[in-house]
Structure formats: C-alpha cells, structure tokens
Amino acid sequence: ISSKMKILITGGAGFIGSALIRHIIRHTEHRVVNVDKLTYAGNLESLAEVEADPRYAFEQVDICSRSALERVFAVHQPDAVMHLAAESHVDRSIDGPAAFVETNIVGTYTLLEAARAYWQQMPSERRTAFRFHHISTDEVYGDLHGSGALFTETTPYAPSSPYSASKASSDHLVRAWHRTYGLPAIITNCSNNYGPYHFPEKLIPLMILNALAGKPLPVYGDGRQIRDWLFVEDHARALYAVITRARVGETYNIGGHNEQANIDVVRSICRLLEEMVPDKPAGVANYEDLISFVADRPGHDVRYAIDAAKIQNDLGWRPQETFESGLRKTVRWYLDNREWWRRVLDGSYRLERLGQGALS
Ligand code: NAD
C-alpha cells in the first residue's frame, strides 16, 4: 500500500467518519474524499480543522445514487473505499426503519456496484492494491444474555433491531461481493464508540448535556444492560491499521475490553461533572439525583462484548485509552466545545450547509 493513497470515505461528516478523516489528514500523507449526504447526523463543523487542507475534498452525495457515485469515482479515482455512511441510531430505527433499509442495505449495494465497476476497469497494478473496507457493528451478533462469552469473528449473526438487521444485511452483501466477484473487501465490526463530536442523541453526550442543563438523565429499564465502549480515536487508529495492513477477505472485531453497565456509565459521568463543574444548575444538589429510569427499549439487547484478540495479534492494534481516561477526555471536550453542541442542539449547524436540500 502506497503512503500517498486517495481514500474515498463515505459518512465522513458523521461521528466516526470525521474522527477517521481528522486522523488521516493529521497523521498521514494520504488524500481523502468525503462522500456524505449530510443527513441530520452529518455535520461539516466536525471537520473544520481539515476543510482547508488541499488533501481533503467533500462531495455531498447520497450513496443510494448510482450515477452520483459513478461521477465521484470517475473524478477522484480513489485507491480505496472506507464505507461508514449509515443510519446509525437504534431508537430511530425502531420508530422509522425505512431509512435504515434504504441507506444501510440499498445504499451499500449501490456503493458495492459502483465500486466494482470502477475496480474492474482499473489498471492491473492499481486493481490489485484496491480495497473496499466496510465498517460495521458488533450489534450484528445480537445478545450475549449476560454470559461470560465474547463475540468473535465467527460468532453467528443474530441481529435484534432494525438497525442491526440492516447492518447485518450489508455485511452479507459485502462478503458476497468478495466471494462472487472477487472485490477486495475487508469488514470490521466494532463495539460502542464514544468521544468528541458525538451527536447529542447518543447516551454519553445526552447525559453530559442534560446534566449540565439540570434536565433528567433517562436510563432505559434497570440500566443493567452492558456495552463494551471504545474511544472513537482508538477506533480511527484501528480502521487505519486495517485499510493499510489487513489481508483481503478478512473480518476483524474491534473493541476496548471496557464492559460497562449503562447505569455505571451515567454515574461515572455524574462523578466527573461533580469534579469538573462543581457549580451545578439551580435546584440540583447532586448530578446523580437527575437519574430517572424510563420504560426499556423494545428488543433491548442485554450485553455486547468484543473479543479483539485477532486485530491485536495480526495488526498489533491496541486501544490507548481506558474507559476512565477516555470518558474524562470526552466530558472535558464537551465542556470546552460548547459552541459545537449548542449549534447542534439549536439546529443552526444545518442552516449553513453546502448545496441544496440539506433541510429536507
Ligand atoms: P453517524 O450517524 O454519526 O454518521 C453517519 C454519517 O453518514 C452522517 O454523516 C450521515 O450524513 C451519513 N449518511 C447517512 N445516510 C447517507 C447516505 N444515504 N448517503 C451518504 N451519506 C449518508 O454514524 P457513526 O456513529 O459515525 O457510525 C459510522 C459507521 O460506523 C456506521 O456504519 C455505523 O453502523 C458504524 N458503527 C458505529 C458505532 C458507534 O458506536 N457509533 C459502532 C460500530 C459501528
């Protein structure tokens, strides 16, 4: 793999995609083309530090549009694709599954076909080096039911939510395009990410921002559901290790060995806020008093936990953050970057977008 690739990244205006692009522009000499539709979850303000870099380009494109993708491949001539664009929020997938089927399944299919047509006509040397890296979730494996087991790369798929079912479908399509057409694909399945620039509907930023505003901290059910948390910048480093060094056809699980019950995550956030923001909102004696248990999410998986031994052994990747150090950095980031999340909360991040139709 050359040290100066052009990498087409879908979903680069999202939480993980923007961390990946910041990582690549900061730490490597590669070029990046960010292909993103800019749904509510896409925020170009997360890419402020790279937008003026000549190695970065942005294309506002829907991955369900074959003709738009063909134009992007023809114009940019990428050496690799890293596919992160997706509808990603489980609760939204329960209320409205259509967009998940459309983007995660049909969009991945459309991208695979556009990539295959492009790859087949590449000169043979570049064709051999081409990579299609599909970024997926550990939720495709379903539920560990509180047992001591971990998800490995050979755990059978058993998705529970419309979100995880749509991601499982997309994984199957990518594997089939590799087996059937020889497309040089790699898949990674990662555990829950957290860190800076996380959209405030997700658990950790929601709790931080609600606590700062003196609002209730809603915890599903009894809060005993266990998630395995990974700091987003550790995920970005793992993805970079995979796209540059992994063998074609492989699957890697990525996780931080940081299993936490949801209620403990919320309590840890409260403790960090007690330390960092002792001046609490009016009427709040302790942040923990704001915790309020709400009806559980339907189909809620009890436990996810990843065995990341393969990527550690094959590629030497290890997370740099513990949950404690990563959570501390995350809370600090939300305290120091109020402008970023205020503009998300009041919707103004959507008003200054490039192109038309961003508000539709
Ligand atoms: P996100 O919701 O923050 O970002 C998704 C991005 O995709 C947004 O910028 C959005 O505008 C874009 N997008 C959505 N539909 C599109 C379409 N039709 N065409 C083009 N762009 C479109 O998501 P995220 O948390 O950054 O997750 C990125 C990927 O990683 C997803 O594939 C997700 O399934 C996977 N993943 C996420 C986690 C996690 O904890 N967040 C864990 C494992 C895997």
TrEMBL record:
A GO term for molecular function: dTDP-glucose 4,6-dehydratase activity
Cofactor(s) needed by this chain: NAD(+)
Positions of the NAD(P)-binding domain: 8-330
Keyword annotations from UniProtKB, A to Z: Lyase, NAD
Keyword Ubl conjugation: no
Keyword Ribosomal protein among UniProt keywords: no
Reaction equation(s) it catalyzes: dTDP-alpha-D-glucose = dTDP-4-dehydro-6-deoxy-alpha-D-glucose + H2O
EC number: 4.2.1.46
InterPro entries reported in the protein's UniProt record: dTDP_Gluc_deHydtase (IPR005888), NAD(P)-bd_dom (IPR016040), NAD(P)-bd_dom_sf (IPR036291)
NCBIfam families: dTDP_gluc_dehyt (TIGR01181)
Family that this chain belongs to: Belongs to the NAD(P)-dependent epimerase/dehydratase family. dTDP-glucose dehydratase subfamily.
Protein's recorded name: dTDP-glucose 4,6-dehydratase
Gene: rfbB
